[in-house]
Amino acid sequence: xxxxxxxxxxxxxxxxxxxxxxxxxxxxxxxxxxxxxxxxxxxxxxxxxxxxxxxxxxxxxxxxxxxxxxxxxxxxxxxxxxxxxxxxxxxxxxxxxxxxxxxxxxxxxxxxxxxxxxxxxxxxxxxxxxxxxxxxxxxxxxxxxxxxxxxxxxxxxxxxxxxxxxxxxxxxxxxxxxxxxxxxxxxxxxxxxxxxxxxxxxxxxxxxxxxxxxxxxxxxxxxxxxxxxxxxxxx
Length: 235
What we know:
Blueprint lengths: L4 E2 L3 E9 L5 H10 L1 H6 L3 E10 L8 E13 L18 H9 L3 E16 L2 E3 L13 E9 L4 H16 L4 E10 L3 E8 L2 H10 L1 H13 L2 E14 L1
Parallel strand pairs: 1-6
Antiparallel strand pairs: 2-4, 2-5, 3-4, 3-8, 5-6, 5-10, 7-9, 7-10, 8-9
């Protein structure tokens, strides 16, 4: 597989580390230090180190206690000959040691993309024609965007109402706002009880539909990505 894209043969892990307030500085430090082991980890195709928002979606207010790591890797490079996955070994001994040393509580998700579009710093999703997940399975959704500087004010004015509808949406099990650069490179990761719940929010909620329409019409983004995942495991 080429290095600059992923598909349903690529697995993804999202790790969210929640530090106690008195160790929050070490969460900030981790965003620089973790680059070194991840850069040299040959299993990892692509990764992002990100901060988290306070209110579960695109958020202008950062949560300085929570920090996220998202890893993309080949599923075949992450299994034993028997097929047993090695997800507890990712993202590596140093990072797990760091979280343990500074008492960070971690929540991680092993994910498999099945549909989507777009790119993330040139790393793109290419569909393979796989069928959508079973309607009764949990589904995770990643929506991320690089926001034009000239459109940032319009974007952030539109976000609160859509975020409020997201928080109140039936079927939502978990949501968090993550991002590389405050205000301009933002994402929302959410988990739903079924694909139907995802579609009800995406296509039927007025505020969300309005944001999508304005995104296209006013060209808010320089780059965006929307991916749906099967939730293989939480650990």
